[in-house]
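## tool: complex_structure
## caller: assistant
## args:
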Amino acid sequence: MQFIRSNTFLWALAVAATLALFVVGLFAFVYRELDDYLIARSDRMITTQIHFMAGLPRDRRARAVADQLEQDSRHVHYAGLFSARGARLAGNIDRVPSGFDLDGTVQGVRLDPLETAAGRSPIVRTVGRRLDDGDVLVLGRHVDETREISSVVGQALALGVLPAFCLCVLAGAWLSVRAQKRVEEVNQRVQRIVAGELRERLPEGNADDPFARLARIVNGMLDEMETMINALAGVGNDIAHDLRTPLTRARLALERGRTHATTLAQLQEVTDKAIAGIDQSLAIVTALLRLTEIENNRRTAGFGNVALDEILREVCDVYEPIAEDKGIALGVVIDRGVQVWGDRDLLFEAIANLVDNAVKFTPAGGRVKLELKSDDRTALVGVSDTGPGINEQEREAVLRRFYRSDKIRNTPGVGLGLSLVAAIVKLHGFRLIIGPAPGGRVEILACTARESAARRMPISDVGSGKREVDVMATRDALDAGTCRMSETEFRGVTPSLVACASASLLKPVSRFEMWEC
Amino acid sequence: MTRILLIEDDIETAEAIVAELAERSFEVQWAPNGIEGLDHARTSHPDAMIVDRMLPGMDGLTVVEALRNDQIRTPVLVLSALGAVDDRVRGLRMGGDDYLTKPFAIVELVARIEALLRRPTENRETVLVAGPLELDLIERTARRGEREIDLLPREFRLLEYMMRRSDQLLTRAMLLEEVWNYKFVPATTNLIDVHMGRLRHKVDAPGDVQLIHNVRGSGFILRGRQ
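## result:
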């Protein structure tokens, strides 16, 4: 009987009791009002009658009293005409009640009727007057009608309230048992999840009640967490694997130095190698921490209006000497100045990383071009080069942490550059587009600051009919992992970017493989 | 003798730092926790301080904040394993003058301490001079003796930074942070070297006495005093 102690049942019981109390209270109020009304009406009636009878000639009074009593089929009227000495002249009252004021005011008194049920000496609303000739006239009216009415209503009430009360209690018990069952089931499943069964989910049911909606939200959260935990496990393996190489190099160098170094110069050379290995390990750790910092940074405290054209010029300024050293022509083409809503340092880092890759993988004599094209709603940053580019099979893989293509095994780097770019792009709610080989081309498709500032925007070219989508919600949705969304779903939540797809900014879509990141 | 207070709870790290600084003729006082460190700082008035962020007893940033509240303006280098941008910003906002993330090269730590101790006063000079070099901040021109040097804006900024700190070791990290305003480690690690190579090529023409020197494994020095 655990359900009897449950909150749901207790609440149902409390509601039922309150309802019953209310109904009883209402009935008491109605009864009192009705009682008062009937008594007042009865008082008016007998007062009028006594005035009428008092005005009759003495010889007609007895007849009038007798007539009134004859016409009283319900036996609620009492009347008595007494001589000055108290002898009864007419009526059904034996004597004038003792202590009764004969001043014409209505009082509730106990009468002595001539014929009465055993032991019944009713309290009756009575009025009495001493008449001009010394006679005493007493009229009374029994007001037990109200008690009868209340008795009838009370019975009806008992018949109505009691089943209703029981029904409430039963409903409470049923709801309590049902809720208890659902909670119990959720508890069991949560315990299984806590025990490590990450694939377990809460029961959603077919209903659309708050409980089911909550279960759906929690299941969504569990999906996300499972994905993240799996990714984390993968990253752990990647870290372990990628740190082994430089640490092994460092260890080997130290081991050989300890055994073979005979001069200070040889020892220094060994130490330099070991330091280089350790530095590379640290670079991997630093890059990973940076990536985690960006991926986990849900705050947009550093966000503001950022001039993309300035960032491009600055990146070009930084990399121009490096490109020149390699014999690569680095140029920047800016359509017009444009501002986006974002973190300046992070956007600089993302674009610098793309240019860095382009310069790194473009052979001498090649070209690297930075472009910025924009319209009122969107901006497109493009970094293209005459290098080998990213082939179709590797387009998704290059965004994975530590991925290093076989072609570039011997180039410096730890394989986190594009992961970092993807994380920054995702944080901003922008899109990363990787172009097809030959020749490298990576683009960042962004909303302009003005577009981001528009809290709501109509979708004109998506789905059926017009809807409104919150830009911030869109960014949050992207943040929450639209990576796994299909193109159609993606279009459903990113109106500004959908507009881009048809904008003249983009080359024909067939030329590009798009990755939502 | 320049006195430095080191507040660091890890004995091995502290020993290495003390040994290195002592070799460079600094007088180093060591405190193993925040409370003792704060007492030392208040009583002995060191010329500079190195404060680890995570300390037993009292957090390093709390120590720095307490000193700043006492109007003690001793330059402070904050050491920390927390290297995220937010952590650095917080460290500097709470009164640190510089922030170095663990693990660090000892030479980096020394260079930063020296930079803190020899901070260029923000004077109103419009012409900087270092040996034969002259930099006109108004005209935006550079000369070496009679020869005019044609510099790009970034090179001009780099040379200005080096001339304000002539004869002082400047690490790559310091240059990245101060001249390039980089808040992250760039993918191309020789970025500074390439830019410095181009600047050196313009400043130190063939036959000239070399002014910009590469200190192997550490950074660069502009030697104004030959």
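## assistant note: The first strand of chain A starts at residue 77 and ends at 82. The two ends of chain A are 53 Å apart (CA to CA). Handing back to user.
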